[in-house]
Specification:
Layout lengths: L3 H7 L6 H13 L2 E2 H11 L5 H13 L3 E4 L7 E4 L4 E6 L5 E5 L2 H6 L12 E5 L2 H6 L1
Parallel strand pairs: 4-6
Antiparallel strand pairs: 1-3, 2-3, 4-5
Helix pairs in contact: 2-3, 3-4
Cofactor: Mn(2+); Fe(2+); Zn(2+)
Protein name: Peroxide stress regulator Ferric uptake regulation protein Fe2+/Zn2+ uptake regulation proteins
Keywords: DNA-binding, Iron, Metal-binding, Repressor, Transcription, Transcription regulation, Zinc
Length: about 130
């Protein structure tokens, strides 16, 4: 289990109950959209508003605690910030699988006269489960 209080403090943020609850929800799911975060957190803290969730998501994104994963035709999902990796996103069921960025992938990302600082690679297709249904 991740120490959410330390994670927030390391990134110059106050460790509030709202933020630690949001982080726990994201961590439990791996990748989760804001509506599902709200549903999870509201069970514990019924008075928490959706606006508070949005506000904290934005602040934690800006401070590199969480990362937004854009989805085709759906609401974005969020994950805890971790080492660089690619997302294999199933267009059928929405499942997201993290996969490592290899040295070959890094070589392919070398762009002339451009110094890459970070990247987010999202590959869309069909997961193994959905391929077997087709």
């Amino acid at each position: 289990m991740t120490n959410y209080i330390s994670l927030l403090k390391e990134n110059d943020l106050k460790a509030t109950i709202q933020r630690t609850s949001i982080l726990a929800s994201i961590d439990d799911a791996g990748h989760i959209n804001i509506d599902d975060i709200y549903d999870n957190v509201k069970k514990q803290y019924p008075t928490l508003s959706l606006a508070t969730i949005y506000k904290n998501i934005i602040v934690m994104q800006e401070n590199n605690v969480i990362v937004e994963v854009p989805m085709n035709g759906e609401k974005s999902k969020y994950e805890l910030k971790k080492d660089e990796h690619m997302h294999l996103i199933c267009q059928e069921c929405g499942h997201i699988k993290d996969t490592k960025i290899t040295s070959e992938t890094k070589e392919a990302l070398i762009i002339e006269n451009f110094q890459l600082k970070s990247s987010q690679i999202n590959l869309f297709g069909l997961c193994e489960k959905c391929q077997s249904k087709a």
